[in-house]
Design brief:
Arc Repressor Mutant, subunit A, disordered N terminus, mainly alpha, two-stranded antiparallel ribbon
């Protein structure tokens, strides 16, 4: 059953490109696609669910490694916003003496279309999600080469442990489940392996002394990049 828009709501879709039929929820609504919102809509494709069941299923299926469902408050906030946007609707309220009152939600036709559009956009379009590691790498020069070597060796060791865990887990589940439902695990394994290979290469360069930096090197870079009308700030020793 399609839910009618509430007064004042603009359920408007914008074409992402002339060559695409993908429609994204109007940004004027303040509703941006997110992994958690997509997960909620995707779960409701199978049938009505209450929030606790959504969280439990995501954890049981191991999707909590790619979707942040650790904080139930975030899940409830996302569900509320999806409901207000008309993408999901209240199906019923369950009352049981053994459990608190639970609201069961179902997917609307608008929600079904939006989940499809979000999925296509997220799969097709690379996006800079600003993770911590690249941000820290952009300022690694604040550490000396020896200290940078030590912390990157720690990261490499952690990545090796993570990769071993992923391999063991993936081997077990791949025997019972088809590849199509394990694509997130396969991707995470590939990304972790690639990051480990890169970090190991940097560690080797630092360890062998073929690459490094000094305060003088950084001061020269600062001088060469400083605008003419700005004062030159020398890096601290």
């Amino acid at each position: 059953m399609r839910r009618e828009a509430r007064p004042g709501q603009a359920h408007r879709y914008a074409a992402t490109s002339a060559a695409s039929t993908s429609r994204l929820w109007d940004m004027e609504e303040g509703f941006r696609p997110s992994p958690l919102a997509l997960a909620v809509l995707s779960l409701l494709h199978a049938g009505p669910l209450h929030p606790y069941a959504m969280q439990r299923l995501l954890k049981m299926w191991g999707k909590d490694s790619v979707v942040n469902v650790g904080q139930r408050a975030n899940l409830y906030k996302t569900i509320k916003r999806l409901d207000q946007a008309g993408l999901i609707a209240v199906r019923q309220t369950e009352r049981d003496q053994l459990y608190p009152e639970r609201t069961v939600y179902e997917l609307t036709e608008a929600g079904r279309e939006t989940a499809h559009d979000w999925l296509i956009s997220m799969l097709a379009t690379p996006r800079n999600e600003f993770p911590q590691f690249p941000a820290a790498l952009s300022f690694i020069m604040l550490l000396g080469p020896d200290e940078a070597l030590a912390v990157l060796e720690r990261r490499a060791e952690a990545l090796r442990g993570e990769l071993a865990g992923l391999d063991a887990e993936f081997h077990d589940v791949s025997l019972a489940l088809p590849r199509v439902v394990l694509m997130d695990d396969e991707y995470k394994r590939a990304v972790t392996a690639a990051e480990l290979a890169w970090v190991d290469g940097v560690v080797q360069d630092l360890r062998s002394g073929t690459w490094g930096w000094t305060a003088e090197d950084l001061a020269e870079v600062a001088r060469s990049q400083q605008p003419d009308d700005e004062p030159i700030i020398e890096p601290a020793d």
